[in-house]
């Protein structure tokens, strides 16, 4: 297989703590993602998924990074801020988990969609044309009229489409989708995932999906990395992971997924059950 598009090696992430101390939240993880592939980073809240994804674009200015993050061979850890700014949007797009918080409430959605193109020298008329076409492609009806509306005038699902448009309008090589279906109902979740699937296929775009929903992973990802407490505990292709998970924590995550055909009298697994299983296997 060719060299990975994204290679994370020995990554440690720490934040300022009380006094002069720092608190390490990610402990030397390795993650690789090849071109055209879809990798899901899964785990419970606080496992380090989102901070790892944000470290790729160095969005947390107070985070201290150690190790290596290479994008198509280019080292990002320690790179000048101008190089990181050049990567954001153009080579790596990011879909935030809360579209309302991600969008500027006092700017029109059209202005926000056009920004990645305007920053790169595309004319305003051409940027508007591309933005309108992309919104139509993403299922926003009357896109040319809605282009000058504000975020509060859109539903949650429509706002998520706007955030996706901002992330992909510059045609990045890698799309990071951080919990892109959070707080959306099941029907809208399916629509958003279908859009991401189509865009990735059409543009040969690699996708790093951050989620705790293994149901989403099963239908979208090629590979899965399972994180717990800042460490990678398992990395496998999606079929292998669901058919024969090796780590007790992975089995616990799978066991905690509600199933329509499950016996309602059987209790779902908890983290405590997982920890007990881990101790019994040692």
UniProtKB/TrEMBL annotation:
Localization per Swiss-Prot or TrEMBL: Cell membrane
InterPro entries, alphabetized: AAA+_ATPase, ABC_Ni/Peptide_Import, ABC_transporter-like_ATP-bd, ABC_transporter-like_CS, Oligopep_ABC_C, P-loop_NTPase
Membrane topology: Peripheral membrane protein
UniProt keyword Transferase present: no
Keywords assigned: ATP-binding, Cell membrane, Membrane, Nucleotide-binding, Transport
Domain of life assignment: Bacteria
Alphabetized Pfam families for the sequence: ABC_tran (PF00005), oligo_HPY (PF08352)
Chain coiled-coil ranges: none
Domain ABC transporter residues, every copy: 6-254
PROSITE patterns: ABC_TRANSPORTER_1, ABC_TRANSPORTER_2
Listed Gene3D superfamilies: P-loop containing nucleotide triphosphate hydrolases
Family the UniProt entry places it in: Belongs to the ABC transporter superfamily.
Name of the featured protein: ABC transporter domain-containing protein
Organism: Gryllotalpicola koreensis
């Amino acid at each position: 297989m060719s060299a990975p598009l994204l290679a994370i090696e020995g990554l440690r992430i720490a934040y300022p703590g009380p006094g002069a101390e720092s608190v390490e939240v990610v402990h030397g993880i390795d993650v690789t993602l090849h071109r055209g592939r879809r990798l899901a980073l899964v785990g419970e809240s606080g496992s380090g998924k989102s901070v790892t994804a944000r470290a790729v674009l160095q969005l947390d200015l107070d985070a201290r990074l150690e190790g290596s993050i290479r994008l198509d061979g280019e080292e990002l850890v320690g790179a000048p801020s101008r190089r990181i700014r050049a990567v954001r949007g153009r080579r790596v797009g990011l879909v935030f988990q809360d579209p309302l918080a991600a969008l500027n409430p006092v700017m029109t959605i059209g202005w926000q969609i056009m920004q990645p193109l305007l920053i790169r020298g595309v004319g305003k008329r051409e940027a508007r044309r591309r933005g309108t076409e992309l919104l139509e492609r993403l299922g926003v009806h009357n896109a040319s009229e809605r282009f000058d509306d504000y975020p509060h005038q859109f539903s949650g699902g429509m706002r998520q489409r706007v955030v996706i448009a901002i992330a992909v309008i510059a045609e990045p090589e890698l799309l990071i989708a951080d919990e892109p279906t959070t707080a959306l109902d099941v029907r809208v979740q399916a629509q958003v995932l279908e859009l991401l699937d189509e865009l990735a296929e059409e543009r040969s775009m690699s996708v790093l999906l951050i989620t705790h929903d293994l149901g989403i992973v099963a239908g979208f990802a090629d590979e899965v990395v399972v994180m717990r407490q800042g460490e990678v505990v398992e990395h496998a292709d999606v079929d292998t992971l669901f058919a024969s998970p090796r780590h007790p924590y992975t089995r616990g995550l799978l066991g905690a997924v509600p199933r329509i055909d499950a016996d309602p009298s059987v209790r779902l697994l908890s983290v405590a059950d997982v920890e007990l299983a881990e101790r019994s296997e040692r």
